[in-house]
Specification:
nine-stranded mixed β-sheet, eight-stranded parallel beta barrel, alpha/beta, 2 domains, Lyase, Ornithine Decarboxylase, Chain A, domain 1, TIM Barrel, 10 helices, binds pyridoxal-5'-phosphate
Length: 413
């Protein structure tokens, strides 16, 4: 999109702002879809970006949806996803959330402990309903090469593989539970297609031995995913040709065993990250000792990921100054408006000379941006979120207002 169009949008909807490009989301979906066997269904992990408009767009692309809370489930339903295309994963589902999911009869509640399974059984029994569940398994190997690993060792996610068979045997006859499948999610941001393929192979192998060991015909196998995108200088693209040939080979090996099984993968980051840019207006430029600072109106409160909050290794997201792409570069540290030294969204970045009124642009911000940020800290109104779709501009979430911070507060009466 050209600079003037972006400035027009910024003038109308104000900074800070997230701007998403529907064409890139559709392109990413098509890329992933065509890199997997036909039978694999893609579930959009809406934790990456829970906007209603994004969910609607994902649905129009053809995804199913993976939710992680009752808020997400509510949004997924509002976006029009049919219940047979909704799965619910979270290690800490509350009773209210489970009741909601059971009332709605979603396709699968992915259970993460036998204690949770017991609560689901009681709720379903009280409601005289049957709940579809899949067991999230913590395999005894980890996600080689993942940016963040979520399996293998001791973890709050899923049920250890060693406990599986005994636990299922102990379930006994439970008429209110329909055990339909298994789920494994091992980690995120995997850039090596071979690793993803080997993980899938192992999951199918595990599914087969579980099917044989329990006599349960698996109706659903959720292979997770972890499809990564390159953010930093030394990152490379996930090799989609390798992903395609590898997953086809693996599927060929197991497809006869799972003729009628729904096969799922989940994806948030791959589908969304590339589509979004975060815009933050430059308020001040200053020097302290040997460093130059660019102070912007939105920082880690709205884009914690770019500040690497909670991470050990710091890398800068790709960033630029709007309209100054070809100007000479100088080193600057980009900060937000917060009263904390951690509010650094770009550390010692090479950028064109910025001036107050310019816009800092953080690329690859479509996934885990606002949704993953401490938005309440220091009570700055939330950024607008805008989508460009076939040349039309959609305001998906309006810019917040100072009054928003009093909504729901009762004070002292
Ligand atoms: C259970 C589960 N599924 C899916 C995802 C989405 O992962 P990604 O955004 O890397 O595709 C996550 C991310 O943490 C997750 O925990």
């Amino acid at each position: 999109m050209d600079k003037n169009k972006i400035l027009e949008i910024l003038n109308e909807y104000k900074s800070p702002m997230y701007l998403y490009d529907a064409g890139i989301i559709q392109r990413q979906y098509m890329k992933l879809k065509s890199s997997l066997p036909e039978r694999f269904e893609i579930f959009y992990s809406m934790k990456a970006n829970p906007l209603l408009g994004i969910c609607q767009l994902m649905k129009s692309c053809g995804t199913r949806i993976e939710v992680a809370s009752e808020g997400e489930l509510h949004t997924a339903l509002a976006a029009g996803f049919p219940v047979q295309d909704i799965i619910f994963t979270s290690p800490g589902k509350t009773i209210d959330e489970l009741e909601y999911a059971i009332d709605k009869q979603i396709y699968s509640i992915n259970v993460e402990s036998f204690a949770e399974l017991d609560i689901i059984r009681k709720i379903a029994q009280e409601k005289s309903k049957k709940a579809n569940v899949s067991i999230r398994i913590n395999p005894d190997y980890d996600a080689f090469g993942a940016g963040i690993k979520m399996s293998g060792g001791s973890t709050q996610f899923g049920i250890d593989y060693e406990q599986l068979m005994e636990g299922i045997a102990n379930m006994g006859n439970t008429p209110h539970i329909n055990l339909i499948g298994i789920h494994v999610y091992m980690g995120t941001q995997i850039l090596n297609a071979d690793n993803i393929v080997s993980i899938m192979d192992k999951i199918f192998e595990m599914a087969l031995s579980m099917q044989t060991g329990t006599g349960i015909n698996l109706e659903f196998i959720d292979l997770g995913g972890g499809f990564g995108v390159p953010y930093f200088t030394n990152d490379h693209q996930l090799d989609l040709l390798e992903l395609k040939s590898g997953t086809e080979k693996v599927w060929h090996k197991y497809r006869d065993k799972f003729c009628n099984t729904r096969i799922a993968v989940e994806s948030g980051r791959f589908l969304l990250a590339e589509s979004g840019k975060f815009f933050s207006k430059v308020l001040y430029c200053k020097h302290s000792k040997d460093r130059s600072y660019i102070v912007c109106d939105g920082g880690s409160n709205f884009h914690a990921n770019s500040a690497f909050l909670g991470r050990h290794i710091r890398n800068n997201f790709p960033m630029s100054i709007l309209g100054k792409e070809n100007e000479p570069l100088f080193e600057a540290t980009v900060v937000g408006p917060l009263c904390t030294p951690t509010d650094v969204i770009g550390q010692r970045v090479m950028l064109p000379k910025a001036e107050p009124g310019d816009y800092l642009v953080v690329e690859k911000s479509g996934a885990y941006g606002l949704t993953n940020s401490p938005v309440m800290f220091l009570s700055h109104p939330q950024p607008a979120e805008v989508l460009v779709y076939d040349d039309a501009v959609y305001i998906l979430r309006e810019h917040g207002k100072k009054e928003d911070f009093l909504v729901g507060q009762k004070g002292l009466g």
